[in-house]
Input
Amino acid sequence: MTTTSARPDAGPGRRRSAGAGPWVLAGIAATALAVGLAELLAWVTGPVGSPLDAVGGVIVDAVPAPVKDAVIALFGTADKLVLLLVMAAGLVGAGGGIGAAQRANRPMGAVLLGVLGLLGLLAVLTRPGVTVADAVPVVVGTAAGVLFLAVLTRRAEAPEDAAGSLDRRGFVRASAAVAVLGAAAGVAGRWVSSAAARVPAAREGLRIPAPAVPETVPAGVDLGIEGVEPWLTPADDFYRIDTALTVPRIDVDEWELRIHGMVDRELTLRFDDLTGRALLERAVTLACVSNPVGGDLVGNAVWTGVPIRELLAEAGVQPGADMVLSTSQDGFTAGTPLDALLDPGRDALLAVTMNGEPLPFEHGYPVRMVVSGLYGYVSATKWLVDLEVTRFDRDEGYWTPRGWSARGPVKTASRIEIPRSGARVDGGEVVVAGTAWAQDTGIAAVQVSVDEGPWQEADLGEVPSDDTWRQWVLRTGLAGGQHTARVRAVARDGTVQTADRAAPAPDGASGWHERTFTVA
Ligand SMILES: Nc1nc2c(c(=O)[nH]1)N[C@H]1C(S)=C(S)[C@@H](COP(=O)(O)O)O[C@H]1N2
Ligand SMILES: [Mo]
Output
C-alpha cells in the first residue's frame, strides 16, 4: 500500500501525464532498446538472428525488380547502408507511434511493440539455416523494450512523492538515455558481427606468395606403418593449447606488428609488409611443455614465414638485450631467448601459413611465431601483435610466474606408438614403432630395449632437417607372453635421452617411454 501526503497541487494518486513529445520519445527509446539489444545479442548467437538483416532480407525479396535496380543504380554498393537507414527511419516512426499509442491508451504501446517484435521474429524464422538460438535476440530484445515501456509508464503514473516516481524531466531523461543506449548497442552489434563475418571470408580469399625458399621433404619421412602418427600432422588434428576463451579473429587488413624496446629503430609491419618479403618454408615440429612422456601434445607442420632475425636486424638490436617478449592480440606473452632468434642456424619464423594454407584461426591467424627447439609456451605465440626486445631480468612471459621456467628448450624425447598398451599382437615378428624428436639438434638414433634386454637400433625415417620429429621402427622376434618395450633417442650432438623421470612442470617431462603388450 502506498501512503501519500496530500499536497495542494497534486491530490493523492493523481496522474501526472507527460505531454505527447516525451511519450513519442519514450516509444522510440523502447523500440531502440528492443532492436539494439537484439542486434547485439545476434553478434553472439550468429548473424541469422539479426532482426535488421532478417527484415531487410524480406524487404529486398519483396521489392519489385525495377525499384531494386533503381536503388542500386543510385547508391551502388552503399545500397545495404541505404536499406539500413530506411529501416532505421521506419523504426523511429514506429517507435513514435508506439509512444503515442501508450499515452493515449495504456498498454496499447507495449502491445504494439510486442507485435513489432513478433514480425521481426517471423522474419528471422523464415531465414535459411535458422535454429532455436536465433530466436533469442528478438525475443529478449522485445521483452526488454516492453519492460522498459511498462516500468516507465508505471513510474510516470505513480503519485509524485512515491518511491521511484518520475517527473516530466526524469521521464524525458530516462527515455533519452535508453534511446541512446539502444542505438549504441545496435551500432556496436552490427559493427562487430560484420567484422566477425568478414574475417573468415578474408582468410579464405587470402593469397600468400609462394615461398622463395621451399621446403624439400624427402620421400621416406613416412615409414608407412599402420598405427604410427603421420609425419606431417594435418592442421585439423594438430594439438591446440592456448589461454583463449574465444579464438581471436583478426582482420588481416587491420593487423599490425610492432617491434620495439631495445632497438635502434622501431618497426611497425602490416601483413603485406611481411608477405612481400622472401618467404622461407620449413617443416618444424612444435611441442608443448605440458606433454607427458608418451603424450600427444606435439605435432609437425610445414610453415612459411619470415625469419625473425631479419626483422630484428632491421630494427637493430641494442647491446644488453637477451630476450624478446612476444604478445598476442589476446594478451598472452612468451619470453624467447634473443640468441635463439638471432642464431642463423636455427629456424625461427613469423609464420603465415601452415601446411600450405593461411594459418587456421585456432593456430594463430594471421601471424604466429614458430621457433625450432623451444617449447611453445616460450616461443610459439599465436595471434602475434607485438615483439619487444628486452631482458629476462626486466620482463617475463605468461607462464613464468605460474610455475614454469623462464627458458624452455625442448628435451629430447621418443615414444612408442605401436603396439598399443595392453595390445595382443601376433607372434613371430613384432613391429615396435613410433616417433622421436630433438628439434634443432636432430635425432641420430633410436634404440629399443625389450624386457630390459640389450638396446637394439631402430630403423629411422627420413627427415628434411633437424627441426622435425622422426619416425622409427624395430622389427623383432618375440616369444609368446607379456613383454615390455622401452625406447630412448640419441640426439645428433651425441647426448642420450635421459632415463631420469621428471614431471612436465617446470621445464618439460623426461624419462623413457614404455609399453607393455602380449604376444600371442
Ligand atoms: N596467443 C597465444 N599463443 C600461444 C599460447 C597461448 O596460450 N596464447 N600457448 C602457447 C603454447 S603453451 C603452445 S604449446 C603453443 C601451441 O600451439 P598450437 O595450439 O598451434 O598447437 O602455442 C603457444 N602460443
Ligand atoms: Mo604449451
About this structure: The first strand starts at residue 256 and ends at 261. The chain has a mean pLDDT of 92. The longest helix spans residues 168-205.
